[in-house]
């Protein structure tokens, strides 16, 4: 199976107290993974050729591109220009004998499963060892409600499996999204097939991402309605092809804004707007409540950390933007009081058990951390040198790299895991640090 090979340890350069100060430092991040992968699938289902500009091109992107290629959907990629041309299939895909491999990408895994669950035929699907551990049961349960049968090769509710999709499917379904909103987004995007789809929602998670999905579907020509916990997706024969601009990735931008907070610096991430459809934009409000200043400019949003990075502790419900729970945990040791991250139990089922990753790595740095269900309380203290255990999770690596900008002796194990979403992260971080020092 196509698994990555671990690389050497990465040492983080502590630059606290070594920066020039008194200026704005600019940094660029890749395009949004969430937007790129949605736009990629919408384009794949479109009638005609679409172009994505400013696209994210990390590991998850190529997992999805490779899976689409195995289904006969061709792309042309210009890595330097960050553009992708997709020849859409208009929703018509012929069954293939080979296994559809989705790698470690949650979006590819969920979106393609829903897509193929709406196309008559037999579809074999598999994923990386990491993705095999992540939940799929809520989505597969929904597909079975629609008339599909699922044949599991190993553990029920997880990859690998074979989908058997009948010629005629039911057009009403219920989906549980407590574990991931991707299950709902996946059904929504695929729901234009056949007679359309009425989706009743059980649970609550990441509705900002669902709203992003809805808005993008409408941009590509779909008609959707929402009424008290129910989405109605009207049928159509393939989406409209578009020339589409992708926003910068707010999740990636937040690492540099968090660095501004703990270093007391002014940082602008190019192209970031408060109007962003990405849920992680709410992390900037968290930083402001901790003592940062926010400024909107033509170039992008500037976050300025308080003098000497003296942050206040905070208590915040992060259920709706939980990817940033790790980032907040990584800077919480430098706050003046305890920080409480609430309502993030679901992050135990992401690329790794992220609550355990927070607890283990904070403890290894000498930071006291209390876990109570989905709540994490972090007590500030001097950060000791430590080896960060990434668990193969890109966000663990990037978040605790920020800690190392203010604390001596932080090293990142298996740093190459960042290629999943931001392959050039450490190169960009090093350039960022040099800009701050000069």
Keywords:
about 450 residues, alpha/beta, UDP-n-acetylglucosamine1-carboxyvinyl-transferase, Chain, 2 domains, four-stranded mixed beta sheet
Task: Compose a concise summary of this entry.
The chain has 13 helices and 25 strands. It is of the alpha/beta class.
Q: Describe it for me?
A:
By secondary structure, the protein is of the alpha/beta class. The chain folds into two domains: 10-30 and 248-437, UDP-n-acetylglucosamine1-carboxyvinyl-transferase, Chain; 33-245, Enolpyruvate transferase domain (UDP-n-acetylglucosamine1-carboxyvinyl-transferase, Chain, Alpha-beta prism), CATH 3.65.10. 30% of the residues lie in helices and 22% in strands. The protein contains 13 helices and 25 strands. The strands form seven sheets. Strands 2-17-19-18 form a four-stranded mixed sheet. A four-stranded mixed sheet has the order 5-6-4-16, with helices on one face. The longest helix is centred in the middle third of the chain and has 14 residues, at 250-263. The relative contact order is 0.14. Mean pLDDT is 94; it is low at 1-6.
**What is the annotated CATH architecture of the largest domain?**
Alpha-beta prism
Helix count? Answer: 13
Question: Outline, from the CA principal axes?
Answer: globular
Query: How would you sum up the major sheet?
Result: 4 strands, mixed
The figure for the number of domains is 2
* Helical percentage: 25-40%
What structural category characterises the helix and strand content? Answer: alpha/beta
Oligomer: single chain
| CATH topology descriptor of the largest domain | UDP-n-acetylglucosamine1-carboxyvinyl-transferase, Chain
CATH class of the largest domain: Alpha Beta
Ends: how far apart? 45 Å
List how many beta strands DSSP finds: 25
| Overall pLDDT confidence | 94
Strand order of the largest sheet: 2-17-19-18
């Amino acid at each position: 199976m196509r698994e990555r090979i671990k690389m050497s340890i990465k040492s983080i350069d502590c630059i606290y107290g070594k920066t020039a100060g008194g200026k704005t430092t600019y940094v660029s991040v890749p395009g949004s993974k969430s937007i790129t992968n949605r736009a990629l699938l919408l384009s794949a289902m479109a009638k005609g050729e679409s172009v994505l500009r400013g696209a994210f091109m990390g590991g998850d992107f190529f997992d999805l591109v490779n899976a689409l290629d195995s289904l006969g959907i061709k792309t042309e990629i210009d890595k330097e220009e960050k553009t992708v041309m997709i020849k859409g299939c208009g929703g018509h895909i012929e069954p293939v004998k080979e296994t559809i491999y989705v790698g470690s990408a949650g979006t590819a895994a969920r979106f393609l499963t829903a897509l193929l669950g709406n196309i008559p035929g037999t579809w074999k699907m598999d994923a990386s060892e990491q993705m095999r551990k992540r939940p799929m049961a809520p989505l597969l349960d929904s597909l079975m409600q629609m008339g599909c049968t699922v044949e599991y090769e190993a553990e029920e509710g997880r990859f690998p499996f074979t989908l058997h999709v009948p010629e005629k499917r039911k057009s009403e379904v219920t989906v549980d999204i407590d574990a991931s909103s991707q299950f709902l987004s996946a059904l929504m995007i695929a729901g234009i097939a056949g007679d359309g789809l009425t989706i009743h929602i059980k649970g609550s998670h990441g509705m900002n991402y669902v709203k992003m999905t809805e808005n993008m579907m409408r941009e590509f020509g779909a008609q959707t309605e929402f009424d008290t916990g129910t989405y109605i997706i009207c049928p159509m024969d393939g989406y409209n092809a578009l020339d589409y601009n992708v926003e910068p990735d707010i999740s990636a931008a937040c690492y540099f804004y968090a660095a501004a907070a703990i270093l007391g610096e002014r940082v602008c991430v190019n192209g970031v707007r408060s109007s962003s459809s990405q849920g992680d934009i709410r992390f900037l409000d968290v930083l402001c409540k901790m003592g940062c200043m926010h400024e909107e400019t033509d170039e992008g949003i500037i976050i300025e950390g308080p003098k000497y990075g003296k942050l206040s502790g905070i208590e915040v419900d992060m259920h709706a933007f939980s990817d940033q729970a790790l980032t907040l945990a990584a800077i919480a040791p430098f706050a003046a009081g305890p920080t409480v991250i609430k309502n993030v139990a679901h992050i135990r089922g992401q690329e790794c058990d992220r609550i355990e990753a927070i607890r283990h790595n904070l403890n290894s740095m000498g930071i006291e951390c209390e876990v109570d269900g989905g709540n994490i309380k972090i007590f500030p203290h001097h950060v000791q040198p430590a080896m960060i255990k990434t668990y193969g999770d890109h966000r663990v690596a990037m978040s605790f790299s920020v800690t190392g900008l203010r604390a001596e002796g932080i090293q990142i194990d298996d740093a190459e895991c960042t290629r999943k979403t931001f392959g050039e992260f450490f190169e960009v971080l090093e350039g960022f640090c040099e800009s701050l020092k000069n």
